[in-house]
Design a protein that fits this description.
Length: about 110
């Protein structure tokens, strides 16, 4: 059983931003969106008042891993991957990554 079987009026959009804006205008009653991306869209696109009108349902419907991809056609893609991983490790170990994410409400 899924959403198709629940008798919901489903509206497909091309971006999560569209769903957040529709939700904030009460044009839809719920939206499926990655929580961290949704929090960022809410913070950057909605007024404080509108943001306070949106709540998250727990537990999440589904948890999906996130991945960063590099095109093998990109120049020096392996070096870029190594540099990214090294930088991410430095940011994580120093606590800077946590500070950056918190600054965006994540």
């Amino acid at each position: 059983p899924g959403f198709d079987d629940a008798g919901l009026d489903l509206q497909v959009v091309t971006t999560d931003k569209q769903n957040i804006l529709k939700l904030s205008d009460a044009r839809i009653d719920l939206a499926l969106v990655d929580k961290e991306l949704g929090k960022y869209i809410i913070k950057t696109e909605l007024s404080s008042k509108k943001a306070m009108e949106i709540d998250w349902i727990e537990p999440p419907i589904k948890i999906e891993p996130q991945y960063l991809m590099f095109s093998k056609k990109a120049k020096n893609y392996l070096q870029k991957q190594v540099a990214f991983n090294k930088g991410l490790k430095v940011l994580t170990e120093s606590g800077e990554l946590k500070r950056i994410l918190e600054s965006y409400g994540m």
